[in-house]
Amino acid sequence: MTETVVTSVEVAAAGLQPVDNFEHWRAAVASIFDVSPAEPDFRSSFSASLKTHNAGNFLIGSSSASPLKFRRNESLVSAVGVDHFLFQLYCSGIGEIDTEGRESKLKTGDLVCFDLSRRMTSWASDLHVLSLVVPRALVQLPQRTLDAAHGTVIDGNSPMAALLGQQLVALHDATPRLSGTDLPLATTLASTLVTVGLSVASTRRLEDPNVILPMNLQAIRAYIDRNLSHLKLSPEMVCRHFAMSRSALYRLFEPLGGIANYIRDRRLDRANLHLASIGTGRGAVARLALLCGFPSDTAFARAFRQRFGVNPREAIMNAEVHKRDAFPHLARERNWLQGWMESLAVRH
């Protein structure tokens, strides 16, 4: 068996003209943000670099750049088709973010959480950030906490920010040297960092932070998300895994519309998220159905049409056309970061 090792990619400013540096850096981060210069004279002064490490189940990296504007709109979310959380530490610099109408300011030492399945815009000065990306399935928190997490900021002057920041720096520095049995343990640390960070940051947004979902419901939801592509995923499979009765499982999911409906809707949500990244060639609908755990493309097409009011073939074609027109840098040969982020959704 081949041992899993960490792979790294670096984009450096050395030897590049400012305009070329900007284009290289923009293409490198295109799967996360659509960026534009924040200053009119960027052609003579822009400088940016990044180095990102792929540890199999999480990505972590360091990035520095001249002032920029960042955008992640519904079109980019659909074009990229990933369902991950981004956790960032502002090592230096200041910024402002707008996450679906919620505005916040950022300073050196702050940590910020982004849900990459949702919209945001931001501005940043000359900055240096550490970024950690983990798939949603690795974050075991109540749905209401996840819903409140997007755009939340942990004040850099707080003890928790200092603690989480130190751990993020340590994980970043150690990741390039990890291999073998170290990687699963590092994945646990990465998911714990994001879980704790989202929990701390989200608490202030919740009306009653003491009301949380049962731990077994959190664990079952995470298990379902990890196994959406498994054709045998069913209430029976969940019961066997958690050693619980059907009646107990059904009672647990009754407020959510039932366990079977929950699994189907999560599969359809994943399908909708991957419309622009599945390709348009022959068999695209079948590939998308298989990715989302449907036993046949016929059953998938029927469920998709009932949920979204359009057949999946048409939805795929519309998404691809929009992706090509709105994000030409993504419509070229798949970039390395896009492939890395997609791989996080299938390695568990």
Blueprint of the fold:
Blueprint: E1 7-11, H1 18-28, E2 34-37, H2 42-45, E3 48-54, E4 59-65, E5 68-72, H3 74-80, E6 84-92, E7 95-99, E8 102-106, E9 111-115, E10 120-124, E11 127-135, H4 143-149, E12 153-154, H5 159-174, H6 182-203, H7 215-226, H8 235-242, H9 246-253, H10 259-273, H11 284-291, H12 297-308, H13 312-326, H14 328-331, H15 336-344
Helix pairs in contact: 3-13, 4-6, 5-6, 10-12
Describe what you observe in this structure:
With 348 residues, this protein is of the alpha+beta class. It has a domain at 215-344: Homeodomain-like (Arc Repressor Mutant, subunit A), CATH 1.10.10.60. The chain is 45% helix and 20% strand. It has a seven-stranded antiparallel beta sheet, sandwiched between helices. The protein has a five-stranded antiparallel beta sheet with strand order 2-5-10-7-8. The longest helix is centred in the middle third of the chain and has 22 residues, at 182-203. The protein is globular, with a radius of gyration of 21 Å.
Which key phrases capture this entry?
single chain; about 350 residues; alpha+beta; Arc Repressor Mutant, subunit A; five-stranded antiparallel β-sheet; about 45% helix
Q: What is this entry, summarized?
A:
With 348 residues, this protein is α+β, with helices and mostly antiparallel strands. It has helices at residues 18-28, 42-45, 74-80, 143-149, 159-174, 182-203, 215-226, 235-242, 246-253, 259-273, 284-291, 297-308, 312-326, 328-331, 336-344, and strands spanning 7-11, 34-37, 48-54, 59-65, 68-72, 84-92, 95-99, 102-106, 111-115, 120-124, 127-135, 153-154.
